[in-house]
Automatic annotation (TrEMBL):
Binding site for NADP(+): A160, W176, T202, T229, G301, G302, E303, T304, A305, A306, S307
GO biological process: riboflavin biosynthetic process
Active site: E58 (proton donor)
Record keyword Glycoprotein present: no
Bound cofactor: record note: Binds 1 zinc ion.
Protein species of origin: Candidatus Abzuiibacterium crystallinum
Protein name stated in the entry: Riboflavin biosynthesis protein RibD
Length: 367
């Protein structure tokens, strides 16, 4: 691609991607976008989409320059919007400010808008270079891309396990399988998603708060969702007494029981149809998507993980593997359920990446 002959494109786009990431956890259901304005090889203004409903990244950067933007180059991680929404079209503002060249990370994943912004800019005589650091730009908004195309959230399965695949001892002791660095990373991950989901057994065994603490991204807590098919949990658990939104997901026939049991708690109850006496996870995910949840983090336990995998709802996995051996044939594992009969039926993880979190190993991949 001719654009790659300019060695500065990747450098300035990398900076725009860094800026975009600052909006994590605060712009959903909008995409993350960063922008910088460049003249004579130097960045003269920067911006990013900071809050849902707020100005877009291009607008923030260009408003800092005023008339000084004329003739400059704009780097933006996502194709500029070309239609009215909560804000005016960015393509109009770019043209009005005299930008001569727009460099784009990737096309808008929205099928209704993809390519339209690029065409409009070119029709106005503005040079456009696209697909600079495209892979990184696409990954930045992988959750938004799935949601805007399917109206279903991007589902991430995150588990922490020992070298032998255990998530706790036979007695249920699980604090802590992973180390401090991995737990801090997990809180940053929580802060970047719209919802966190666990099963009833995780509440009974660990009594978690499921809040986003110590994370890199400042935000209100994401939705906390608990699968409690028969509304058996009492309201004494810590998760029901945290700030933000907590949703108890139960079977439709158990709605009245759930409402009565939690009438003194500030929680929401979401009834869902049952399938094989369990929550119909596909229906749940569809409901969440319709409510604007673009990303859902599933944190277990092993039965919940197995159910999501069996339902083919998981898009991405993060497995933290601690350098510990727990043992015990009755100790819970990261993925339980009925398992598979033949090895050829195993779930293959694609595009695998591995890195260290202090002494723990983080495995990332896609289903």
């Amino acid at each position: 691609m001719p654009a790659l002959s300019n060695p500065h494109h990747a450098r300035f786009m990398a900076r725009a991607l860094q800026l975009a990431a600052r909006g994590r956890g605060r712009v959903s259901p909008n995409p993350l976008v960063g922008a910088c304005v460049v003249r004579n090889g130097h960045i003269i203004a920067e911006g990013y989409h900071a809050n849902f409903g707020g100005p877009h990244a291009e607008i923030v950067a260009l408003k800092r320059l005023g008339k000084r933007a004329k003739g400059a180059t704009l780097y933006v991680t996502l194709e500029p919007c070309s239609t009215w929404g909560k804000t005016p079209p960015c393509t109009d503002f770019i043209r009005q400010n005299g930008i001569k060249h727009v460099v784009i990370g990737c096309q808008d994943p929205n099928p209704l808008h993809a390519g339209r912004g690029i065409r409009l800019l070119r029709q106005k005589g503005i040079r456009v270079t696209a697909n600079i650091l495209r892979e990184e730009a696409v990954k930045l908004n992988e959750a938004f891309a799935k949601w805007i195309k399917t109206q279903m959230p991007f589902v991430i399965l995150k588990m922490a396990e020992s070298l032998d695949g255990k998530i706790a001892t036979e007695t249920g002791d699980s604090k802590w399988v992973s180390g401090k660095a991995a737990r801090e990373w997990a809180h940053s991950l929580r802060a970047s998603v719209d919802g966190i989901l666990v099963g009833k057994n995780t509440i009974l065994k660990d009594n978690p708060r499921l809040t986003a603490r110590h994370g890199r991204f400042k935000r209100t807590n994401p939705w906390r969702l608990v699968l409690d098919t028969k509304a058996q949990l009492s309201n004494r658990h810590r998760i029901f007494h945290q700030s933000g939104t907590t949703v108890l997901v139960c079977g439709e026939s158990y709605l009245n029981r759930a409402v009565q049991k939690h009438r003194r708690s500030h929680i929401s109850v979401m009834p869902v149809k049952l399938k094989d006496q369990k929550i119909d996870l596909r229906e749940l995910v569809i409901k969440l998507g319709r409510l604007g949840v673009t990303s859902l983090l599933v944190e277990g336990g092993g039965e919940t993980a197995a159910s999501f995998l069996k339902s083919h709802l998981v898009d991405k996995i993060y497995f933290v593997i601690a350098p510990k051996i727990i043992g015990g044939k009755h100790a819970p594992t990261a993925v339980e359920g009925d398992g598979i009969r033949l090895l050829k039926e195993a779930k293959t993880i694609l595009r695998v990446q591995v890195r260290l979190l202090d002494r723990d190993l983080l495995v990332e991949g896609y289903c």
